[in-house]
Amino acid sequence: MDAALLRSLWYISAALALVLLARRPARQAFGAGPAFSLWLLPALALVLPCLPELPAGWSVLPSIRVLPGAIAVGMPAADATVSMPWLRWLWLAGTAAMLLRLGVHYVRLRRQARALPASMAASLPQLLDGFDLHRLRLHASGPAVLWAPRSLLLLPADFLDRFDATGQRLVLRHELTHLRRGDALWSLAAELMLALLWFHPLAWLARPRFRLDQELACDERVLRHTPRDEAGYAQALLHSVDLSAAPALIPWFAEPQLKERLSMIQRHRPGALRRRAGYAALAVLMAGSVFVAQAATGNPPHQTAGQDLSYNSRLYPKYPAAAIKAGEQGTVMLKVQVLADGSVGSIAYEPEHSTTTSADLIAAATDAARQWRFNPETKDGKPVDGYVRVPVAFDLHPPPSPADDVEKSNSKLQKVF
């Protein structure tokens, strides 16, 4: 399977696991706002392979060992990348099905939403704090925010009867806070992430917790500005009706959230200093995650060049007779430019990484390298020019093989008997 996709999947899995483990302690230490911002980490993990690469050296291929009077011995590692295109098609099919489901829900909600009656519209402006009345709609799933190019605020037909004056004010303030925080875009991004990760159990585990953290952060902001409304806020929650939230909605209330939201209202909320410390800690965590992920890959997200072994094995260098006569041996390090088509560009001898200065050995290694072929470096799936270092070791006195040791032992035994 494509290495870049596997690396991205690993990053996202680690980020989801970290958020699921850290969200509750972060909420207790810094408040619901910084804790909700932790959900930026999976989004960062998704785009991490697209971030600028850290500087990295050229890859060094396994050494080629050249013996006198024999073919050179190459010892490169095999390419372990497994190609399974059917997995990619299965993933794309699942993603398309999830996006279709999301689109169907959205279109259905838009079609079911109706304009606000004039009598209801006349009684709300003083509660809306300048919000555009044209973005209000009637829908049975309200109170809720429906994300769109211009997000809509949905209200149930019995909104004025269901909530008293205090409840109406607090519910509308909650929904307007969602809009000001950009939560509609957050929810859209979360649904798109779920569509991409439809096969991942952590993504399904994260979804309801993302919704809960979003509501808690919104509740916290509303009550931070009006702390005296805590009792009325809790009362409005208790008198709400359970909603089955569609993917395209941010509903005012869903029953699984009730306990956590009521507990948050009763708890002492962190002050401004602790909230800022939480956001600062999150920024450090994200920057550190980028650095660690990039450093862990060594030569980050692209495939480095490698040898075309089936071709190069027939063209390894031969030990020059003049060098054998002169007793010259050692390792020649070549810096080889690999062009996008796999052919060889420039070749340079690197004395600082070599153990011999023999002109004959350097020439033999260079002449052979000019005929080699390479698998080019790839970046974003496209071949690009790159460099590799190829060590060529010329050895006049190779260590004895096991077969030689056995032959010597047999000859000694024959002399004894």
TrEMBL record:
<keyword id="KW-0812">Transmembrane</keyword>
<dbReference type="Pfam" id="PF05569">
    <property type="entry name" value="Peptidase_M56"/>
</dbReference>
<dbReference type="InterPro" id="IPR052173">
    <property type="entry name" value="Beta-lactam_resp_regulator"/>
</dbReference>
<feature type="region of interest" description="Disordered">
    <location>
        <begin position="397"/>
        <end position="417"/>
    </location>
</feature>
<dbReference type="InterPro" id="IPR008756">
    <property type="entry name" value="Peptidase_M56"/>
</dbReference>
<feature type="transmembrane region" description="Helical">
    <location>
        <begin position="184"/>
        <end position="206"/>
    </location>
</feature>
<keyword id="KW-1133">Transmembrane helix</keyword>
<feature type="transmembrane region" description="Helical">
    <location>
        <begin position="86"/>
        <end position="104"/>
    </location>
</feature>
<dbReference type="InterPro" id="IPR006260">
    <property type="entry name" value="TonB/TolA_C"/>
</dbReference>
<feature type="transmembrane region" description="Helical">
    <location>
        <begin position="6"/>
        <end position="22"/>
    </location>
</feature>
<protein>
    <submittedName>
        <fullName>M56 family metallopeptidase</fullName>
    </submittedName>
</protein>
<dbReference type="InterPro" id="IPR037682">
    <property type="entry name" value="TonB_C"/>
</dbReference>
<keyword id="KW-0472">Membrane</keyword>
<feature type="transmembrane region" description="Helical">
    <location>
        <begin position="29"/>
        <end position="48"/>
    </location>
</feature>
<feature type="domain" description="TonB C-terminal">
    <location>
        <begin position="304"/>
        <end position="403"/>
    </location>
</feature>
<dbReference type="Pfam" id="PF03544">
    <property type="entry name" value="TonB_C"/>
</dbReference>
